[in-house]
Structure prediction request, 315 residues.
Amino acid sequence: MSLALKGIHHLTAITADAPGNLRFYTQLLGLRLVKKTVNQDDTSAYHLFYADGKATPGTDITFFDWPAPRERRGTHAISRTSLRVAGAESLTYWRERLAEAGVSVGEIRDLDGRASLDFEDPEGQRLRLVDDGGAGEANPWDASTVPAEHQIRGLGPITISVPDLSRTAPILTTLMNMREARTYEDGGATVHVFEMGEGGPAAELHVAVEPGLPQAGQGAGGVHHVAFRAADVEELHQWTERLKGFRLPSSGEVERYYFRSLYFREPNGILFEIATDGPGFAVDEPMESLGESLSLPPFLEGKRAAIEANLKPLK
Prediction:
């Protein structure tokens, strides 16, 4: 059997307002803060992870806290992040909840055969709720502000914008073993759907072809990278060797403590990561108290006092 990614692992975006970000994603969206740590390459910045009740791989949207200006929207970028919910009633609930909170929210519509609802966070982060039909595992969080039946179940399709599909498609299919499944139209762009593993909304990358857009400039309200799921370290080793075989530059394997990662860029400069499912966020704190205190991997623990002194309060 050929090497196959299991789906979306996580997505990492950028905020310039960590306290506001924490309020929006935990209080309004009802997600659980499962890890409060720092950017391992820039320990002056928080790295906040929001996920489902059990911090399941494939459910976390994460943020670097950087004092950056707003993103300049365009192509050569990750342009929209989908989050999965179950059923049409949930989308109606969310439409009302977001509108009441003054959030920029669209109307429920059918897109690519699924009921969908586009909205933005206060910094302009482009998000989409997608009805996944209740398929697969769900791990609601008991302390969420959102009723269990309407809670966000995890990440859905991630959309990237490219000016030309011809350079990206071979990376996705020939190198990453994705399958091109179908196309649909959205806002004047043709979007190509690429599937991983067993497919379905938790295992899709959507590629919008938008040659008329300027090149994006990364910033607050934008996305830094998207990560795909490898089952374990042995599988990650195989991906490392596969990238070498294709002579594609990469970071080499990086120990993130909560998972092990491999980074590379597709031809438009969009940063991809392949990350292992384990060991997970409960490796250094109990599942019941995830995210309640600052967690540092062992290789940063000796610098805790200096790191904590350099971080801004979150509340």
Remarks:
- The helical segments are 18-28, 88-100, 165-175, 233-245, 298-301, 304-310.
